[in-house]
Amino acid sequence: MSEVKFNVEHINLHYGNFHALKDINMKIYANEITAFIGPSGCGKSTFLKSLNRMNDFVEDCVIDGKIEMDGVDIYKDMDGISLRHEVGMVFQQPNPFPKSVYDNVAYGPRIFGIKKKAELDEIVERSLRQAAIWDELKDRLNKSALGLSGGQQQRLCIARTLAVQPKVILMDEPTSALDPISTNKIEDLAVELKKDYTIVMVTHNMQQAARISDKTAFFLLGEMVEYGSTPELFADPQDERTERYITGRFG
Ligand SMILES: Nc1ncnc2c1ncn2[C@@H]1O[C@H](COP(=O)(O)OP(=O)(O)OP(=O)(O)O)[C@@H](O)[C@H]1O
Questions:
Q1: Atom 7 of ligand 1 has which residue's CA nearest to it?
Q2: Calpha distance 64→14 (Å, rounded)
Q3: Which of 50, 84, 78 lies closest to 64 in space, CA to CA?
Q4: Which spans of this chain does the record mark as coiled coil (predicted)?
Q5: Whose CA is nearest to atom 1 of ligand 1?
Q6: Tens digits of per-residue pLDDT, 68-82?
């Protein structure tokens, strides 16, 4: 059994009067892919963003309970900036900066004070290799990232996240804007990256969760209904609501 990366206890989150997360308790394990599934609006993204305190930026958002990463309370004993250095995020729509490929990847390291060209060159190459896109981009490092295909942009965004050497990568529906070939590449990449990182992924695509995740959590109306090993959850769901959702008989 791998080590616990996040320990989540009694998380309740409100947007104003709206109770968006209801008493979430779970452990997320290192070097695994954990998938969050569930119908639209059930709180998957909200919970994902609570793991790197992106909700700090949402007015009227109040969170109670405890989330520990490697045993440290991320709300009490860490600041948001250091936390997000360690817990990177990739979004649904690839969002490269309107800069060159090189400057996109070097952006984070430069913010953290790395100035030497040789060092930045090394980080850019390493990150693009890890994101399985070095061969495609090595001759266009100085070209605008906006000229890349959607799938290439998403792998570039993953490289940008990797460049600051996080421990965890949160992915919020990272393939929903991509074609099947690009989706495949991102899925293969996620499986490769879990050797070195912990990956938590929101997906609308149950086949994707079944294909690549080690554990799956099913959310419904702000509750985490069921959580367990992916093959078991799909083959033998314990809760009737999970079964209805995964067999497409929901609503
Ligand atoms: N900033 C916000 N202010 C108020 N309510 C919000 C905010 N963000 C999300 N919500 C509400 O919280 C609930 C959960 O939203 P969330 O985006 O976490 O769901 P989700 O399961 O990720 O949905 P989807 O699959 O459609 O992305 C929804 O009812 C949503 O309208």
A1: 15
A2: 9
A3: 50
A4: none
A5: 58
A6: 999 999 999 999 999
